């Protein structure tokens, strides 16, 4: 984990061979990390403080609109020391099973949505890296 992203009291480490792209959104920003393969991780920050349940549900509904026979399970756990709500998701795309992890929580003066996805051919290799990025996530309270 050689590189560091830091903005609005939110920081995390990520591998130096992963590409980071940051975009401003209507209310905040989104950072996307792309692995050398197809796995990716996204962090969205919204200072308007929407409810975490709304953000995680909206992300799940977007996936449901794209993929039929999607399976999801609701989850509650701690992310960056904060209670987070979300979904563990599995779906088929291009004849591959994909795993997606969605979590949302309040922190850093806003609401964060963290989403990662990998297909099962690379999950064994990518999942520990994706989880390490999430474990490195720190949020400073304002």
Topology:
Blueprint: E1 3-7, E2 10-14, E3 19-25, E4 28-34, E5 40-46, H1 52-66, E6 71-79, E7 82-93, E8 96-107, E9 110-119, H2 123-136, E10 138-139
Antiparallel strand pairs: 1-2, 2-10, 3-4, 4-5, 5-9, 6-7, 7-8, 8-9
Give an account of the 3D structure.
The protein has helices at residues 52-66, 123-136, and strands at residues 3-7, 10-14, 19-25, 28-34, 40-46, 71-79, 82-93, 96-107, 110-119, 138-139. It is an alpha+beta fold and 142 residues long. The chain has a single domain (3-139), classed as 3-Layer(aba) Sandwich (Protein Transport Mog1p, Chain A). A seven-stranded antiparallel sheet has the order 3-4-5-9-8-7-6, sandwiched between helices. Strands 1-2-10 form a three-stranded antiparallel sheet. Strand 1 and strand 2 (10-14) form a beta hairpin. The mean pLDDT is 93.
Q: Report Rg.
A: 14 Å
Number of domains: 1
Query: What general outline do the C-alpha atoms trace?
Result: globular
Sheet with most strands: strand arrangement: 3-4-5-9-8-7-6
Question: Secondary-structure element order, as H and E?
Answer: EEEEEHEEEEHE
Give the fraction of residues assigned to helices.
10-25%
The CATH homologous superfamily corresponds to Mog1/PsbP, alpha/beta/alpha sandwich
User: What proportion of the residues form beta strands (DSSP E)?
Assistant: over 45%
Assigned CATH architecture: 3-Layer(aba) Sandwich
* DSSP summary, beta strand count: 10
Uncertain regions: pLDDT < 50 for 5+ in a row?
Answer: none
Quickly name the level 1 CATH class: Alpha Beta
Number of helices: 2
- CATH topology (level 3) name: Protein Transport Mog1p, Chain A
**Main beta sheet:** 7 strands, antiparallel
Alpha-carbon distance between the two ends: 26 Å
Helix/strand/pairing class, anyone? alpha+beta
> Averaging pLDDT over every residue, what do you get?
93
């Amino acid at each position: 984990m050689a590189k560091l992203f830091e903005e609005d009291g939110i920081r995390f480490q990520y591998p130096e061979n992963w590409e980071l792209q940051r975009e401003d959104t209507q209310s905040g920003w989104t950072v996307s990390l792309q692995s050398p393969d197809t796995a990716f991780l996204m962090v969205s920050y919204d200072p308007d403080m929407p409810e975490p349940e709304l953000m995680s549900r909206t992300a799940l509904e977007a996936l449901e609109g794209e993929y039929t026979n999607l399976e999801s399970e609701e989850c509650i756990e701690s992310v960056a020391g904060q209670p987070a709500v979300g979904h563990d998701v599995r779906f088929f795309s291009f004849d591959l099973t994909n795993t997606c992890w969605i979590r949302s929580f309040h922190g850093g003066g806003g609401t964060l949505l963290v989403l990662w996805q990998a297909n099962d051919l690379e999950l064994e290799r990518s999942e520990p890296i994706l989880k390490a990025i999430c474990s490195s996530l720190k949020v400073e309270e304002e």
